[in-house]
Structures are given as structure tokens and as C-alpha cells.
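Lecture notes, unit on protein representations.

Consider one protein chain, 92 amino acids long.
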Amino acid sequence: MIVRIMGEGQWKLADSHFAELNKLDDELLDEMESGDGVGFRRTLSALLDAVRTLGAPLPDDALEPSALILPSPDATLEEVREMLSDDGLIPG
């Protein structure tokens, strides 16, 4: 699966990492719903770090279709809220 972090680039991750990313996404959604700004920032950072750590970066000139598009590290709670579906940032 190809994951894009807005403003940074794309990473290729094995589908086996989906469950780990989805767990962090669920935590992020809970923190957003409760208005926990500190928790939101911590979990967003953990989610993006997981993508960077578990994935292999694609070259900057690669233009692969992204299965997931995640916000930039400095995105606000309101900006991320606009990106959400009912399932969070990661469907399923």
C-alpha cells in the first residue's frame, strides 16, 4: 500500500502494517472527538512516525496513486477533522 504524508512524500508499506496504523487512527479519532489537543498531537506524530519507520520512501519524482493520504505533521485538529471520514483517516 502507498501512503502519502502531505507535504513530505510517499511511502510503500506492506499491507500487514494496516492493523497497527488503524489502531493509531482509532486513537486519533477518539482524541479529536474528546477535544484532547495534546493527545491528538502525540498520536498524529506517532501515526506519521509509524509510516516513516515501517515504510520505504518512494523517490520524490514517483507519482504512485496513494491508498491513504495523511495530514502533515503540523496540521491542526480542525484541518484533520476536515479530512476525516466516518472511519477516521484510515478506512476500515
